[in-house]
Amino acid sequence: MNKKRIKIVYFGTADFAVPPLQALLNQPAIFEIVGVVSQPDRPAGRKNQPKISPVATIAREKDLVLFQPEKLDKNAIQTLKELKADLFVVAAYGLILPKIVLTIPPGGAINLHGSLLPKYRGASPIQTAILNGETKTGVTLILMDEKMDHGPIIDSAQVTIDKIDDYQSLTKKLSEAAANLLVETAPKYIAGKINPWPQEHATATYTERLKKEYGRINWQTSAFQIERQIRAFSPWPGIFTKLNDRRIKILTIEISTDKTASNTIPGTITTTKNRHPQVATADYWIKLIEVQPEGKKPISGRDFLHGYPNSIHFI
Asked: Would you list the DSSP string of the chain?
């Protein structure tokens, strides 16, 4: 006798949400996706053309029932009720689910969050973990309540942060871990074999929604802090500095730990013996390997330095 499949409405928008959706689709004997909810196509790029979200792209490719409401209003709520799902699964959706939505399916709504909760609640857990120099993070599956990343924990999985991990590579690791966690845990949860346990709310920490200005380099900080900033904020908001009121994106660097920069004004540029530009920070020199002047294509640090004096300052 065949077991009843778990009927799921999947809420997701960003890249992080794609592997968990694909993992559910890869097990059609266990899971049935009765609907996908993603944010509407948004204008993007220089031409401001509508851009479909990664999750909506998968839904269209797989011919899934797709909804892209601007907000979860009465009409959207009625549509969700009519799908008669057993469970809502949420991953990087980008909109808050009101309490009335959380109570629609018998199994409630479960959320995949890119940190080991209660640490790093909020919009930027992956970037913040890199920025703070963490060596490990993870994904947590929670039963959602009306508060942000607050609900009881169903299960979690730990992920190592390597020294070379940036936002994109760590997102890939975490989303793959989230996919495995979801398909292994959701059936046990629906079967009543897992009793979610409350988070330790007193130890909760929070992350912010990123802003463009967070990408500006403060050369008076540590070289290692700047290096983490580059890894955390790539590709968005991107890391930049200014030279003569001109915005310069910093794409690739190397830290020179063999010589201190503590006796040099932070932001001063000199050159190495090999004509590589290097910038003084609060402790060490940062070698500029690749940069992108405003309105131009990426170039090497050496090419960037052509035409400038030997000693200039970023501001």
From this structure: -PPPPEEEEEEE-SGGGHHHHHHHHT-TTTEEEEEEE-PPPEEETTTTEEE--HHHHHHHHTT--EE--SS--HHHHHHHHHT--SEEEEES--SPPPHHHHTSSTT-EEEEESSSTTTTEES-HHHHHHHTT-SEEEEEEEE--SSTT-SPEEEEEEEE--TT--HHHHHHHHHHHHHHHHHHHHHHHHTT----B---GGG--EEPPP-GGGGB--TTS-HHHHHHHHHHTTTTT--EEEETTEEEEEEEEEEEEEEE-TTS-TTEEEE-TTS-EEEE-SSEEEEEEEEEETTS--EEHHHHHTTS-SSEE--
Q: In CATH, what number does 6-207 get?
A: 3.40.50.170
Position 276 pLDDT exceeds 90 = no
Residue ranges, comma separated, of all CATH 3.40.50.170 domains in the chain are 6-207
Which tens digit of pLDDT belongs to each residue from 135-157? 999 999 999 999 999 999 999 99
Fold observed for domain 212-313: Methionyl-tRNA Fmet Formyltransferase; Chain A, domain 2 (3.10.25)
From residue 159, alpha-carbon distances to 29, 34, 176, 229 in Å are 29, 31, 10, 20
Within the chain, all domains assigned CATH 3.10.25.10 are found at 212-313
Q: How many CB atoms lie within 10 A of CB 21?
A: 27
pTM above 0.90, yes or no: yes
Per-residue pLDDT, averaged over 55-71, amounts to 97
Structure tokens at 303: 């090419």
Q: Which two tokens stand for residue 38?
A: 């993603």
CA–CA distance, 138 with 1 (Å, rounded to integer): 37
